[in-house]
Amino acid sequence: MNRSVEHSIPGQATSDGAGVKLTRLLQHTLQQRLDPFLMLDAFGSDNPNDYIAGFPNHPHRGFETMTYMLKGRMLHQDSSGNEGLLEDGGMQWMSAARGVIHSEIPQQENGVMAGFQLWVNLPAAHKMDDPWYRDFQRDDLPSYSTEHGVEVIVLAGQSQDTNGAVTRPITQPLVLDLHLPAHAPFSHPVPVTHNAFLVVYEGTVTLNGQELTPHHLVILANDGDHVQLHASQDAKVLLVAGQPLNEPIVQYGPFVMNTNEQIQQALHDFRAGTLTR
């Protein structure tokens, strides 16, 4: 069976970092419903005032981040000594785990900066693992084309016989960037046990006859094991799915743990300068 649309939720304008304007697509109220995913932000502007200040040093503990840069240049630096320049079509994956302090600063003073940041929860047993980081340029990201001309960029997980840039054995995130020409169909298996959503960021597509438009988080019901899309016009879609952890989620800003006591410990460690040790 093909999955149906459970809800289509418009993104909410907000800001983060040093005033970067964002559209928050996945809010904290949806964390249990879309477990293991915690947050999804979209950013996109050709006004430097909307992004130029970037995200100065800030901490994280207990989860992973995927940043996908559609357009623009952003420099990542962190307390583990990692550094990477995200450019058009590039992606970075960072597991904050027990603690990272990092910054993301634009390396441009004009032009378009656009992309997504997705937060993926870590299992309780791995929240205090060592952090790690990896970045990929556009040409490093696995991709393939379907017989109908759909380009599939496999950011995480596996699609057909193509392994993604990142695989995670427990949460099993599937993150696909789909570029569909007008009138093209696209179908992909997603286990009925996995939570899934999609975001149209250019053009329009239909799912089970329902038209989906940009800037909405489309939650897919757990009522089938395939996602079937059809492009009404040239379209670009982010498809995301993953295995839920079914564990308590307690978030305080940049910290996501399982209990209030663990959050208090994270705050104590950050204030004491021991978060990353």
TrEMBL record:
Any signal peptide, and if so, which residues? Answer: none
Can you give the residue ranges of the Pirin N-terminal domain? Answer: 22-120
The protein's matches in InterPro entries, at most eight in alphabetical order, are given as:
Pirin (IPR012093), Pirin_C_dom (IPR008778), Pirin_N_dom (IPR003829), RmlC-like_jellyroll (IPR014710), RmlC_Cupin_sf (IPR011051)
Pfam families noted in UniProt: Pirin, Pirin_C
Can you give the residue ranges of the Pirin C-terminal domain? Answer: 175-275
Q: Which family does it belong to?
A: Belongs to the pirin family.
This chain's protein is named Quercetin 2,3-dioxygenase
Species lineage: Bacteria, Pseudomonadati, Pseudomonadota, Betaproteobacteria, Burkholderiales
